[in-house]
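Intended use. Records such as the YqaJ viral recombinase domain-containing protein entry shown here are meant for training and evaluating sequence-to-structure methods. They are not intended to support clinical decisions.
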Amino acid sequence: MKNMSKNIFLNALACPTLGWLLRSEQYIEELSDESHTLADRFRIEQGIEIENRARQLFPNGILVEEKRMQLAAQETKEFISDPNISVIFNGAFFSGGFSTRTDVLKRKGKGWQLIEIKSSVNDKEEFIDDIAYTAIVMRLAGFDVRATSLILISKDYRLGMSNDKLFLEIDHTDEVLVRV
């Protein structure tokens, strides 16, 4: 069985059997990029574009580039230890068989604000579960989550407006921390 990732956790909330299958090595080997439909690939590409544009809201952010989870978690820990770094993109956390990646971490006092970016105009309950899982793994790994928020696409955005008008940030600290 592989480690519990955020993707597996969120799928298991919807269907425990699917969660179990996703942790199964044999099932994972059967999945490939070829199994993505054209629509799936389009959504993935759009999500990447939205995340890249949202990162522009944090011009001093540092990207954790390491792909391997345990090494990325070590790199994240080093960035967190550096008081000169106030924003981290793609932070990685690993503890007790649980792993997660963050979209944005923003220093908040002696702790961190966890920010999740979604390419949606609607705030959904499933996004709270997504943020809560990440906050739980961060805490298990020994890091202080002080606040959480969600960045969505603004319904008020119109072509030609500045990039900061494209997004809407919603605070979800209370809803997330009650689950943690």
